[in-house]
Specification:
ABC transporter permease; transmembrane; MetI-like fold; membrane; about 325 residues; 2 domains
Amino acid sequence: MRYLLRRLGFFLLTLWAALTLNFFLPHFMPGSPINSLRAATRGKVPDAQLKQILASYGFKPDADIFSQYWDYLGKMLTGNFGVSTGGSSLGQPVSKMIGQSLPWTLGLVGLTTVLAFVIGSLIGTVAAWRRGGVVDSVLPSVFVVTSALPYFVVGLFLILFFTIDNTWLPGSFNYDNTIVPGWSPGFVGSVLQHAVLPAATLLITSIGGWVLTMRNNMITTLAEDYIRMGRAKGLSDRKVMYNYAARNAFLPNLSGFAMSIGFVLTGAILVEKIFNYPGLGYQLYNAVNSIDYPMMQALFLLFTVAVLGAILVCDLLTVWLDPRTRAKG
């Protein structure tokens, strides 16, 4: 119970610090929502009227920064993210815009991250168990190269090969505009077809890290005494590999997986921009370009909560899976 309370206290403290940075960092950026609206209206609307427009949407540009900070904290804690102040999306509720983009990011980035983690861990397990074999000699070297490639390079190459040179797969958006959205086979097939290239981009660039990490953890674990004991007891190689070695080597990867959830979301900004995929990364890119404070703050908060929540769940899973973490020092 004490461990759980400590972790919850750390979660709340980190969340407050993230909320504070989330508020002040956009205000330090060059430009302002007024400048963005002035550019969108091409200077035809007086600044006084622009301020009135922003004030009607809950944004108070003339208030001091600390008053805005306390107002911001109250809104974030109550889930009131306000409305967008971007030029093209002015007046639209931020929560509604995020709700429209979140399923696409979860379906693409979330599923791809889990697949990369699971497949990479399995390949790393087999490579370490059969060290020096074909899998260990070929795949880790290949994935070292692919994991070093930038997201946008892989995405542009896939678009060039599969969309421009060969019209095999669509290279933009999330489904065919000629199809009415619904649970029809045509719409589902179109969504899956449009997700192939961005998902492949994320898999190619992220799976290598999990392969190398799991392989190194397995090699270290295989030298432990309990592995020798398992073999001495006459257990099968399969049981020793998965129940003894892989289970213990897998634990350090959980923390990395929790951290990667938020980082992959932010890394997907480039992928979603290249493929015009209407997810959270694409929304964040547009919000930064239009100096849309409410949208940026809501998205940063969502990314922060996702990372902190994943780390908290990871800590609890580690305590449950590894009895050593429950022992007193």
